[in-house]
Model the fold of this input.
Amino acid sequence: MAYTNSPIVVYTKLSPNHSGQRTHSIDRITPHCVVGQCSVETLGSIFAPSSRQASSNYGIGEDGRVGMYVEEKNRSWCSSSNANDQRAVTIECASDNTEPYAFKDVVYQTLIKLCVDICQRNGKKKLLWLGDKDTTLAYTPKADEMVLTVHRWFANKSCPGSWMYARMGDLASKVTAQLGGSKQEETPTVTDAEKTIWDFLHGKIGNAYGAAGMMGNLYAESALRPNNLQNTYEKKFGMTDAEYTAAVDGGSYTNFVKDSAGYGLAQWTYWSRKQALLEFAQAAGKSIGDLQTQLDFLWKELQGYTSVLNTLKSATTVKTASDAVLTGYERPADQGDAVKEKRAGYGQTYFDKYAGTKTEKPAATCTAAKVIAVAVEQIGYIEKASNTSLDSKTANAGSANYTKYARDFDQKYPKWYNGKKNGFAWCDMFVDWCFLTAFGYEKALALLCQPERSAGAGCTYSLRYFKNKGQFHTKDPQPGDQIFFGTSLDNSTHTGIVESVDKKQVHTIEGNTGNQVARRNYSLTNSRILGYGRPAYDAAGTVAPVTPATPAAPQVTDVPFLVKVSIRDLNIRKGPGTNYSRTGSYTGIGVFTIVDVQSGQGSRSGWGKLKSGAGWISLDYCKKL
Done:
């Protein structure tokens, strides 16, 4: 097909960082956040050097002007996914430099205009937001449909930020309306906002029943959308949720306080409560529709509802908490039994999802490979500054020892340890969590040699449990071992899981190392290593230690060829081997072209050179297509 470029562009600086002409027609748009309030000229400078290894088709500066850096006919390097970028027009948008990475209104309005233009020139009448990665990637757009995707689906990133992510449905709706297409049917989706709300409420209330009871009511009021304007008033005012919010924020609509329209998570309606919300948001310099601002205001407001708050903290059922919120805080006109049951049902759904005792089906056999796979999935998780956003890998980063690992033990498995552990050093809890996730409760305890209600959240105690069972070794580590560090057997200060071993080094995955989950390497003679606890894995699935004298030769194959990467954090290195430094970038999940294969340290299948020129990746983690 013939490709064109947007006439909205006012600045062009073409980047060398692209893969040439697309291999797929355009049927996706991927908005990104820049993480900085910058101009289109600055973006052009960022993408100009070939060493940057990044680009986008378009960019929107903080003043709303549009720049072009890669023509639409070519595939940009923007979304950590070859497959996505081959079919997507990518757009970098100037944003705040901290979460939720908000856009200025002029940027958002230009984004709408640019998306309309892209759709029109590519023969599309609808822009769809399906709200879920698996659903979207499995969907085949019709000839007149364009689909929205996001960077966070392909890499361990927040992009496009919580601000824009919460507005993807609004973007799709507005663009489709301007294209003259039919409105997309709204379907409930699991969003980052949902997780943020749960983490906030549970962190503040300290009781899962109370958090679920409150959350069920918020869902009934607003579907958990912080910019939700009461539906009857949308028609009355002739404004959408986003338009109403923008008008209040910008000052063009001045009757927010006394217009009697329900608004926000709790559908605040009474004039004094809306005035308090408005003043709270203005004092914080935030939009009235900002999720975190509304959560903070809700919590502040709840301090004046003593009876409700006490019930939330002490409730032993979701319904008790839900009824208290319904009758004592929300107070809708209909508080009958049917409404109570419905709202409690919503709350129970969230309780089962986030606080229930259900876990993934544990492995039927207990092997080192399975627990290592669980640990690999957690790489990049950063501990939190407070007891919120615990399920996000990167949000609320800090050094206060709050993690989802300790949270799960405290809430779901209170008999595992001898007390609550969230807020304490968590390297040992990370190991225990990986075993629990891989093998289930009873098998994990047995493999770790731990009794219930133990002090096994402490490294010294965990070492001692292995030692007492005769399963502690001071040399010859094996994959799947629990490695212990410290000054003596009576003073272990850190721990992790052995991922692999070579002739000179032991390679680990550790929690609470630099306040995160990460890979580490140590000399086998490192004086800090006290030894290794060896779980009694099922023999048939035990991973043998890898101790090759020289790297194994890769299988000879014709190049180029395609590989699929299914992990988010596959390192790209400057040369073919772990003896070469990392570039600091990851492939992300996607399909990539390999143009050369060489043997090298640290990979049994060899090292593949990326066609993009970004560097080399281990073929151990790739599937040839």
